[in-house]
Predict the 3D structure of the following.
Amino acid sequence: MGVVALLAAVVTLIAPVGGPVDSTGEHLAYSRPDGAGGYRLVIDGRDAPVAASPEPFDVDLGTGARGELVAVYSRRQDSRDVVWFDVATGRERPVPAASRPDRDEGAASVSRGRVA
């Protein structure tokens, strides 16, 4: 286990966690209650720079096409859509193939740039 994952695991043990927890072996992601009725996405012990969610993030950590650390999770707009978050850039974007307005998508997984 890498140092980052170990430290994040310690944070997980002492911080309240709501919802799924995911790890790549070196990185850890989970939701934490924000005190205002919502949840913040936490990656490697730090709040990710994304908007809070009214429900826990169904986060999955994986890799992009170039091996970069990314996370996928769902967001509710009119329907539940899958979102891609690039950890290095702090940018969030919808996954078009999993963002249909007539369907709820969620519980996605990502590896090597492919979302399932």
User: Anything to note?
Assistant: Helices lie at 3-14.
